Design the sequence.
């Protein structure tokens, strides 16, 4: 393993030789003066055709909720109502796992997901969540510098992470100095070390890391993470983290969790807003007869898969 790979893995796993580097990075005054992101250690209607769901009106959230085994679908009158409910959902799971395990592992994606998390950085959650128990990961990342406009890390840092007191050493970003393959390998090695240190749970069913919560978005083509319709990586079964060099959506080079890891999560939340995404939502939750599954249709979870939809995204149901 290359020295940079080892350094990344050690930094993410808290080895003292790398903590010194990490502390120096945090204290570097030029990062503060330039306003660049601090570099953490590298490494209102449910459709009638959904009769398989049992619908319940929940006045508090102004949403209609449908539930099946391991699946919950909520449709909100507005994206604002969705954001309020998503914050409570995340905060409740943070409290649950914080009490049960003393930590909370949460996985972020890019796109509009970070905007939907904005209520977490407002009262009452910003002051009541035990942020020091959070361990933050990315389900996928663009292989670009952390201060690049395309970086999911920068998006999360600017919109969320910089506003809450999460322990910097508990934020696991990729090593953006490596190739896509190298960055994916490093991230997988890091996850394996965190499993060994019991920071990450292991699924009894799959033997893969069992994150407490993954917060997932969906593209207009039905892709999740960086797993795109018709791409061979959708069927990857062996790797935990893999790389893609020919993403149909720029930038082309990315790393991504694979479906076995995504679906080993205890809770997965799919957050989808906008009429432009109504087609894939219909395919996933309606009575689609198409034999070719979209990636979003392949998402599951060990405890619960929760859909958070605004009424525009649910307009074709």
Sequence:
């Amino acid at each position: 393993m290359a020295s940079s790979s080892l350094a990344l893995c050690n930094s993410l796993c808290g080895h003292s030789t790398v903590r010194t580097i990490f502390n120096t990075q945090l204290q570097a005054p030029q990062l503060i003066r330039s306003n660049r992101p601090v570099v953490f250690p590298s490494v209102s209607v449910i459709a009638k055709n959904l009769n398989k769901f049992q619908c319940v009106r929940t006045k508090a959230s102004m949403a209609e909720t449908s539930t099946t085994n391991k699946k919950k679908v909520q449709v909100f009158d507005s994206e604002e109502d969705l954001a309020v409910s998503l914050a409570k959902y995340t905060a409740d799971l943070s409290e649950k796992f914080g009490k049960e395990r003393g930590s909370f592992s949460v996985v972020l994606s890019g796109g509009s997901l970070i905007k939907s998390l904005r209520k977490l950085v407002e009262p009452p959650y910003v002051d009541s969540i035990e942020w020091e128990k959070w361990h933050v990961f990315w389900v996928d990342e663009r292989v670009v510098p952390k201060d690049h406009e395309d970086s999911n890390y920068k998006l999360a840092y600017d919109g969320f992470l910089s506003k809450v007191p999460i322990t910097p050493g508990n934020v696991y970003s990729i090593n953006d100095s490596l190739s896509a393959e190298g960055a994916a390998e490093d991230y997988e090695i890091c996850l394996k070390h965190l499993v060994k240190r019991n920071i990450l749970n292991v699924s009894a069913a799959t033997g893969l890391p069992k994150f407490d919560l993954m917060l997932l978005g969906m593209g207009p083509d039905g892709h999740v993470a960086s797993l795109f319709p018709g791409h061979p990586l959708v069927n990857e079964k062996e790797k935990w983290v893999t790389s893609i060099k020919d993403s149909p959506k720029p930038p082309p080079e990315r790393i991504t969790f694979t479906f076995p890891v995504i679906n080993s999560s205890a809770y997965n939340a799919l957050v989808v807003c906008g009429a432009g995404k109504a087609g894939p939502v219909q395919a996933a939750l309606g009575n689609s007869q198409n034999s070719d599954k979209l990636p979003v249709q392949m998402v599951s979870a060990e405890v619960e898969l929760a859909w958070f939809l605004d009424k525009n995204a649910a307009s074709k149901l």
